[in-house]
Specification:
The complex is a heterodimer. Helix content of chain A is 40%, strand content 18%. Chain A is built from six helices and seven strands, in the order αβββαβαβαββαα. The longest helix of chain A is centred in the first third of the chain and has 26 residues, at 2-27. By secondary structure, chain B is mainly alpha-helical. Chain B has a domain at 26-90: Helicase, Ruva Protein, domain 3 (Orthogonal Bundle). In chain B, 55% of the residues lie in helices and 0% in strands. The radius of gyration of chain B is 33 Å and the shape is elongated. The termini of chain B are far apart. The chains are: A alpha/beta, B mainly alpha.
């Protein structure tokens, strides 16, 4: 009887151990948070056209300067909220970084109707079928990407960027050393 | 009256149609696109595949799957394209390696252990001790009240 009891106890301990391990791994993360794998990776190249002039814009031609990419859509409420912040920041940081807006899952007409009254201080790009957005791992709008002068995605900000100080902090980090190099 | 008011109200809000999805491919290739879409998780939804979701992000990703199929990419290449961007999170079915084995083997293992336990209980020979049948012999518990209750119950 004693042997069976100890066997059962060992079995129970193993089961509890496995469950504890599984839960410890699972509970530490938010299952709704989509991982972002492109952080620290070279930004995928793109060739889009400007919403206003139809001029082509490629990532390659922006190399050498930090780039801020903001994905938005006319049907997205939070995008409307953050737009003035971005517009102001783009004006203030002229020369430090190039700002571009990318229209996500929207028609050029809608995008124009959205952008005109906002009077954005930075150009907007049209992304047919949001091909470039998926290339960049966009999960929804608004999302803002920070790409350094070497064309490496430093980070992305999910949700509306309403705090200009926050934006400035991220912009400054763009010209600083990469996280992987910081320790060297 | 309410419906009229509602119609007037709704008619005023500018309804902006979003960008339409790309055109469907020929049936054979479209079937591949849909099959792949069923395996990929929609980032905006909860436990839905991009083929089953009508959200903008899912539509954008389906369009990308279609493009990759047109470019002649294999199913594995298309899956890894999404894993490279959204991590293994993007796959509705976790690939069987490392920690994920727990998900694949755990249920079967538990079922097997449970089955073994039940089989042991069922196949165990009946205990040799002769089980007394009927109510136990009345015995005086030493408590007159308890005895009275027992006597009453036996009537």
């Amino acid at each position: 009887m004693n042997r069976r009891l100890s066997l059962a106890l060992v079995g129970l301990a193993v089961l509890v151990g496995v469950l504890f391990f599984a839960f410890a791994r699972g509970f530490g993360r938010d299952p709704h948070e989509v991982p972002f794998m492109l952080k620290g990776k070279p930004a995928p190249d793109f060739a889009l056209t400007r919403l206003d002039t139809g001029e082509p814009v490629t990532l390659a031609q922006l190399r050498g300067e930090p780039v801020v990419l903001n994905f938005w859509a006319s049907w997205c409420g939070p995008c409307k909220l953050e737009h003035p912040t971005l517009s102001r920041a783009a004006r203030r940081h002229q020369g430090d970084a190039r700002f571009y807006g990318v229209v996500f899952e929207d028609t050029p007409e809608n995008a124009r109707a959205f952008a005109q009254p906002m009077d954005p201080s930075f150009p907007q790009l049209v992304d047919p079928h949001s091909r470039m957005a998926v290339d960049y791992g966009v999960t929804g709008v608004p999302e803002t990407y920070f790409i350094d002068a070497q064309g490496v995605i430093r980070e992305k900000y999910v949700g509306p960027l309403l705090d200009e100080a926050e934006l400035t902090r991220r912009l400054r980090a763009l010209s600083g050393p990469r996280a992987s190099e910081a320790g060297q | 009256m309410t419906s009229l008011l509602l119609i007037a109200l709704l008619a005023q809000t500018p309804h902006a149609p979003q960008q339409a999805g790309s055109a469907l491919l020929d049936p054979a290739r479209e079937a591949r696109v849909q099959a792949l879409g069923k395996q990929l998780r929609c980032p905006m939804c909860q436990g839905l595949s991009i083929a089953d979701s009508g959200s903008s992000a899912a539509r954008a990703q389906m369009d990308r799957v279609r493009e990759l199929v047109v470019e002649g990419k294999s199913d594995e290449e298309i899956r890894s394209y999404f894993v490279a961007r959204y991590g293994e999170w993007a796959l509705l079915e976790p690939p069987a390696h490392g920690f994920n084995w727990l998900v694949w083997l755990g249920p079967g293992l538990l079922l097997l252990l449970g089955g073994l336990f039940v089989a042991r209980m069922v196949l165990r020979p009946a205990p040799p001790s002769p089980a007394p049948s009927g109510p136990p012999a009345p015995s005086s518990s030493g408590d007159p009240y308890l005895d009275a209750v027992r006597a009453e119950l036996r009537k």
